[in-house]
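User: structure tokens for Flagellar protein FlbD, please.
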Amino acid sequence: MIYLSRLNGEILAINSDLIEFIEETPNTVISMTTGRKIVVLEGIDEVIDKILEYKRRIFVEDTPITKYRRNEV
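Assistant: Done. Predicted tokens:
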């Protein structure tokens, strides 16, 4: 989940795995695979950075699973 801001400043968390595409029209509109569209304050680059950071935390950082695997090798 990543945290983004609606145009009114309300914070929401969305499942980044459900993002189909993002466009700026000039507001940033996130189209979800569910068909829902969400308008946010953050620009495309900032949304992508948040997604990458989220994926990095899951797949790269020292979670208990990756620590265990590193110690095995």
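User: Anything notable?

Assistant: The longest helix spans residues 44-59.
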